[in-house]
Amino acid sequence: MTDDVPPADLPPDGATVGDLYIAFDQQTGQLGKANTYKRAAIDIVRACEARDGEVDAMLAPRKFLGIF
Fold first, then answer.
1. Burial class (CB in 10 A: 0-12, 13-18, 19+), 5
2. pTM value?
3. pLDDT tens across 14-55, in order?
């Protein structure tokens, strides 16, 4: 997941319209993979931050009898 998603191979010189269509369709698929990895990483970070916030709240000093 930490490796870059490689781009699709470009068609050779003299490629037909069909070859270009296939290459760009493959590139769109690679972009979809990259976006999935990014979303997964962001979700992991958000879950960790939420957990850390809960722990911080539990460890916060509490007042004794509402005075101290």
1. middle
2. 0.57
3. 889 999 999 989 999 998 888 888 899 999 999 999 999 999
The answer to whether 25 touches 9, Cβ cutoff 8 Å, is no
Could you report how far apart the first and last alpha carbons of the chain are, in Å?
A: 49
* Model confidence pLDDT, tens digit, residues 4-15: 788 888 888 888
Q: Domain count of the chain?
A: 1
User: Is residue 3 in some structural domain?
Assistant: no
